[in-house]
Specification:
The complex is a heterodimer. By secondary structure, chain A is an alpha+beta fold. Chain A is 45% helix and 19% strand. In chain A, a hairpin with a 5-residue loop joins β2 and β3. Classes of the chains: A alpha+beta, B alpha/beta. At the A-B interface, β1, β2, β3, α2 and α5 of A face α8, α10 and α12 of B.
């Protein structure tokens, strides 16, 4: 499969690889996907008191497009408010990386990952979350 | 060293220069360009002579009579002709076929077609090492079984089935036995004088011959009959019509001749290189060899690198031409059905890489590959959340993943 130069660049020089302390109250962690499906993304955000994402880290098990999608996402969310970050659409990622149709699910996974990370952060902070299923459980 | 380094000899091989030279002699006005079916002039006679010499060369590699060799466009066509041809011809005897889940798609999809036509097919599960339990095969044969189709060497994992033993079973039960030998001819000794195989498919391009040509062995004693799938001028004793492509056939003949002569020496050298590759990689943590390591062709190594996805590994190994069982490399987005049939979990199937070595592989290339793989496995595992969890002692099976 031929990849775009942007995918190759993110794949060969991934930005913001690593981990943040998942027990820190200012850190939100989102892990999406499944090993059996061939991709797992873990995205972490560190949010400051102003509600701005000041750091983001990722680790991804998956194909080159999945790695590139998560790498790009960490670049994009840094410096954004939670609402701004939550409004990133998978189509934005797919367009930026010029993903072929068969790789669109990688960008969907990235969108899911940031949403999950934000939801985790809000839950820790006792803020309203779109996803309150976990809280009631 | 030419890059990317070619480690995909099971997909196809380059044409041996000796083969290419022979082929070039059968194309132009100065060469042997005639139609082998032209009986009225020397151009035809000369072409026919070349075809018959090649037929003899193909037969010689496998201990067959040249009259038992039918030229086709490749192993896929041979599989189709053997399975559909025999099932159709013998349908009054029964409509049941036995095969295995790890067969090539040319066999599996042909069997699916028979099912659509009202036949019943039993798909055997292989053992975890990729080999077939002969007792299970025996048990699967019924009174209405007309055909058993089992491949000799598996294309993904390189394991060798005991076709001599299977032939004893099928002959005793008076059931026809077809073997897809696309991956074994020229790699594993085949003697159809002693092996009780009724139909055998061959391909030229897996053993340094050209693409677009193959053959089907059709036993004469006891005689096996087929319903033709391609109708026309009655070529190949009516079993496969179509003008014989002299240059292709001559290429296949030369490739088979060379294979007979050089197989033993080639295998010894290639086995040494494969073992060198394995030795260079075996100290990497969490790797799994897929398929039996003993009952295996010398040129194949199929490894799952746990916690690293196969396609991203191939992307990292851009200097190596290999193939993967990862879903991302297949059109269907399903991980390798062969590895899944062995009982490997999906993660390991996604993480598998097949290395297949060949006549032109060098020690220098193998050493380069070992270094490249080691470096990139480290890099990709640093990127992998699964690796981090594994290192923290978290059981990945205990996590509720969100399948998508």
């Amino acid at each position: 499969m031929a990849y775009s130069d942007k995918v190759i660049d993110h794949y060969e020089n991934p930005r913001n690889v690593g981990s943040l302390d998942k027990d820190d109250a200012s850190v939100g962690t989102g892990m999406v996907g499944a090993p059996a499906c061939g991709d797992v993304m873990r995205l972490q955000i560190k949010v400051n008191e102003q509600g701005v994402i000041e750091d983001a880290k990722f680790k991804t098990y998956g194909c080159g497009s999945a790695i590139a999608s998560s790498s790009l996402l960490t670049e994009w969310v840094k410096g954004k408010s939670l609402d701004e970050a939550a409004s990133i659409k998978n189509t934005d990622i797919a367009e930026e990386l010029e993903l072929p149709p068969v790789k669109i699910h990688c960008s969907v996974l990235a969108e899911d990952a940031i949403k999950a990370a934000i939801s985790d952060y809000k839950q820790k902070q006792g803020l309203d979350s779109d996803d309150d299923v976990a809280q009631s459980a | 060293m030419k890059k990317p380094i070619y480690f995909d000899y099971s997909a196809t091989t380059p044409v041996d220069p000796r083969v290419a030279e022979k082929m070039c002699q059968c194309l132009t006005l100065d060469g042997n360009f005639g139609n082998p079916a032209s009986r009225s002039h020397e151009y035809g006679w000369k072409a026919e002579e070349a075809v018959e010499e090649a037929r003899q060369q193909v037969a010689d590699l496998v201990g067959a009579d040249p009259k038992e060799i039918v030229f086709t466009s490749g192993a896929t066509e041979s599989d189709n002709l053997a399975i559909k041809g025999a099932a159709h011809f013998y349908q009054k005897k029964g409509k049941h076929v036995v095969t295995c889940k790890t067969e090539h798609k040319a066999v599996l999809d042909t069997c699916r077609q028979l099912e659509r036509e009202g036949y019943e097919v039993t798909y055997l599960d292989p053992e975890p090492n990729g080999l077939i339990d002969l007792d299970k095969l025996k048990a699967a044969i019924r009174d209405d079984t007309v055909l058993v189709s089992i491949m000799h060497v598996n294309n993904e994992i390189g394991v060798i089935q005991d076709i001599a033993a299977i032939g004893e079973i099928t002959r005793e039960r008076k059931v026809l036995f077809h073997v897809d030998a696309a991956q074994s001819a020229g790699k594993v000794p085949i003697d159809l004088q002693t092996m009780k195989v009724d139909l055998m498919s061959f391909s030229a391009h897996k053993i340094y011959g050209p693409k677009g040509i193959g053959a089907l062995y059709v036993r004469r004693k006891p005689r096996v009959r087929l319903e033709a799938q391609m109708h026309g001028g009655g070529h190949e004793r009516g079993m496969r019509s179509g003008t014989l492509p002299t240059h292709q056939i001559v290429g296949m003949g030369e490739a088979f001749r060379i294979a007979k002569e050089e197989m033993a020496a080639d295998n010894e050298r290639i086995r040494m290189l494969r073992d060198r590759l394995l030795k260079g990689l075996e100290d990497i943590e969490e790797i799994y060899i897929n398929g039996d390591l003993e009952q295996r062709v010398p040129h194949n190594l199929n490894i799952s690198f746990n916690f690293v996805e196969g396609e991203s590994l191939m992307m990292a190994l851009k200097d190596l031409a290999v193939s993967s069982g990862s879903a991302c490399t297949s059109a269907s987005l399903e991980p390798s059905y062969v590895l899944r049939a062995l009982g490997r979990n999906d993660e390991l199937a996604h993480s598998s890489i097949r290395f297949s070595l060949g006549r032109f592989t060098t020690e220098e290339e193998v050493d380069y590959a070992i270094e490249a793989i080691k470096q990139n496995i480290d890099k990709l595992r640093e990127l992998s959340p699964l690796w981090e969890m594994y290192k923290e002692g978290i059981d990945l099976n205990s996590i509720e993943w969100t399948a998508h």
